[in-house]
Design goal:
about 260 residues; two-stranded antiparallel sheet; 2 strands
Length: about 260
């Protein structure tokens, strides 16, 4: 998509009052009025729960989080709306893996990726009144894949005890500046444009956005650490709030131009 597409007016001094609690409250109200915003992540939560269960019982080496009993706080921050998974596939496990196990492991990863990606795309598009097209879905999946690959390459940072203070501050800054990038991708931006414009839009709104990032991350960690149902509940509750909070933040600006929702 070209830079000429329509996006929110990036005036951080529009005068509209934005607070973390106000945005979260409005997001919850919108979810209560439109359960269609919740349903995609309910389905994704089922998929992630099943995938997590299969990972625990199959022969493929699996990384398992011990939840709230761990000695380090594992805050589940994400640059896109998703549930909190307590299992994962270590990249090292793929080395010299026999083909049947490799296909099985990669298949589960792909299933979880698509469940979260499609749910996020649909929920953001519905919340932001954006046109839902295959092209925009593919761009959003590209964004999600790029984020996942980046964090895998950085060592899959999953605990405060594993990073230095400087790196942690850098991560928080990135989450704040890229907070609305997922919605801009869904609205029609290419990934580079979404990243650039998200950085511009969140300038001057750091305290509010940091509060949103922290609230979503802590909620995902606490709820996701609940035995048995944590993955499902974090997907069905936290992920939709994350998605709709992005839309509410964008709607708080005076001028928002978007593609109409399909009838």
């Amino acid at each position: 998509m070209s830079d000429g597409a329509r996006f929110p007016a990036f005036d951080a001094r529009s005068g509209t009052h934005r607070t973390t609690t106000g945005i979260l409250g409005e997001a919850v109200r919108r979810l209560g009025r439109d359960l269609g915003l919740v349903a995609p992540f309910v389905a994704a939560g089922v998929v992630l729960s099943v995938v997590g269960r299969l990972r625990r019982v199959d022969a493929v080496p699996t990384r398992v989080s011990d939840g709230l009993g761990e000695t380090t706080v594992r805050v589940q921050f994400s640059l896109y709306p998703t549930g909190s998974e307590t299992t994962g596939l270590p990249l090292a496990a793929l080395v010299d893996m026999k083909l049947p196990y490799l296909l099985w492991a990669v298949g589960l990863e792909l299933l979880a990726f698509l469940a979260v990606g499609i749910a996020g795309w649909y929920t953001l598009a519905r919340a932001f009144d954006a046109e839902r097209t295959t092209g925009r879905l593919l761009t959003y999946l590209t964004f999600v894949a790029a984020v996942q690959a980046t964090f895998r390459l950085l060592g899959a940072v999953d605990g405060l005890g594993l990073v230095t203070l400087v790196a942690l501050v850098g991560l928080f800054a990135a989450f704040v500046r890229l907070f609305v990038a997922p919605a801009l991708v869904v609205a029609g931006a290419d990934v580079r444009t979404a990243v650039r414009r998200s950085s511009r839009l969140t300038a001057g709104e750091g305290v509010t956005v940091f509060g949103l990032v922290l609230a979503v991350g802590l909620s995902a960690w606490i709820i996701g650490s609940t035995p048995v149902v944590g993955t499902f509940v974090s997907s069905a509750v936290v992920a939709p709030v994350h998605a709709v909070s992005i839309a509410v933040f964008l709607d708080s600006f005076e001028s928002v131009e978007r593609s109409p929702r399909p009838r």
